[in-house]
Amino acid sequence: MIPLPLEPEPVSGTEIDKPYRGAFDGRTHRFALRVYFEDTDAAGIVYYANYLRFMERARSDMLRAIGVDQRATLDAGEGVYVVAEANIKYRAPARLDDEIVVVSSLDKVGAATATIHQRVMRGQELLADATIVAAFMSPDGRPKRQPKAWLELFKPLAAKEGKE
Amino acid sequence: MIPLPLEPEPVSGTEIDKPYRGAFDGRTHRFALRVYFEDTDAAGIVYYANYLRFMERARSDMLRAIGVDQRATLDAGEGVYVVAEANIKYRAPARLDDEIVVVSSLDKVGAATATIHQRVMRGQELLADATIVAAFMSPDGRPKRQPKAWLELFKPLAAKEGKE
Amino acid sequence: MIPLPLEPEPVSGTEIDKPYRGAFDGRTHRFALRVYFEDTDAAGIVYYANYLRFMERARSDMLRAIGVDQRATLDAGEGVYVVAEANIKYRAPARLDDEIVVVSSLDKVGAATATIHQRVMRGQELLADATIVAAFMSPDGRPKRQPKAWLELFKPLAAKEGKE
Amino acid sequence: MIPLPLEPEPVSGTEIDKPYRGAFDGRTHRFALRVYFEDTDAAGIVYYANYLRFMERARSDMLRAIGVDQRATLDAGEGVYVVAEANIKYRAPARLDDEIVVVSSLDKVGAATATIHQRVMRGQELLADATIVAAFMSPDGRPKRQPKAWLELFKPLAAKEGKE
After folding, report:
1. d(Cα D61, Cα C23) in Å, to the nearest integer?
2. From CA C131, how far away is CA C116, in angstroms rounded?
3. Cβ of D7 under 8 Å from any chain C Cβ?
4. Residue numbers in C near A47 (CB within 8 A)
């Protein structure tokens, strides 16, 4: 007889239907994810552009965690964050099924931009190390000051404050 | 003074670094995820091909839950699942930040194929309804019988058994 | 001395800066593309969802060829095509660097939907065979009649006409 | 009567089935492409990671143009290029249907790495400006010297030569 393989993982009805959320550990935000087929390429490793997808998931989760609602702001026509600059060093490749963690911290906040340091880790191994400058943009594509309320939310997180 | 917004979400060090896992509710597998910018397109909704990415994540998680190690099998040169057929009805669009759940059940298992029914839900609302036929493929691209041990693992899950 | 390898491919300044366009061969639209790393996965083949990206490029090019301007219609808030149904059979995998052609024909046009038959070919070999139902959607997510002018543009292409 | 809209674009049977190829203009490689729905996100612009997909297509085309066969080298287990470093400045967003050109030049070639300068242009407007360091990697994930024959092919293209 074949044992039902399901029993070791009982479902707590509501919990399982909640998507993953990262969390802060002090000022550092941690966001875990697994590598799926969609993330890899024919070289057997994660395609280099896809680390930027992982890092954006982590940044969006970080914003959500401090109370920033990106969709409401976008829908209201107020603006949206875009990436103004990305500098990334790839140290070691991630592979299918790997469990990785994106570790993010807010380096600097200016009037219209925020600089985030993001590392992609597999356990203690650094896979990618990036500095991302996000800029707030109006719907017509111009740089715009970040909502004042958000700047307040960022304050406890930022290592250094830029000139506002 | 600005309250630290982090306190309501204390980190249980090890837990937060574990990627999300779905789980079975009886014979049905549930896999939750959130919609990120990468998933959407200029129409403001999830791009139609990306539902297939969501469904593949769910199928891979389902396989992992019952003990199938896809990467080891691939690395050993034994073969890999490919999709032989996908029939999908899109009922309503998902949008940025939506929390959705992929609900999967194994419809039928044959010697070389498995048929999976997958629904993408937002709460009680059906967003997409798909039938996916996965086929095991040898490294040279030919259909191949699924590993016998896996067929045993599938048995408790399958609604109907195909002819083997 | 090393010969300059560039000479066999002189650049006709303006031509090289024009993106690829497919074209009609009678009622059938042909759209060629090459497989890049981004399209493949760790199994060494094109990831199954990416055929839907290829097919959407071909459909968009087909619309453009007959004079439909999707972006203007989207920007004007009039609506956008979404996929209501996709049925796809995967026959053989495409691999890195493969040259493939998406062959599309308009099967049926209704008031709010269009049914397109799309085959992905590598030379004479059929890689994927799909039927796609596209539906016109208003910005608030509801089905909507296709612009009348477009229906006229479709007429010469459609094999059978649906009831309007 | 509705005129057949197809006639202005007669098909030269073989030509239309050839995927787009970029070309060199002196030492500079040009690669044109159009923005499709798959490339955009809910902000109505090209998702930031997708510029890296565009740039990789251009680099792969550049390699192909000088005679480098990446797939054969990968299949032979000799190695593959990975990106070791990417530094990108985003100047202005690309949008749906935009015609853009990736302009690439080889900045420096070392024993195991090549540095490429890549600009994404929309007409005369600079959309993104990037420096990419590509490194040759053995199948077990270690840095490896580039094939000697390839270094010879690169020589006519490189602005400055690194120390070998």
Report:
1. 23
2. 6
3. no
4. 37-38
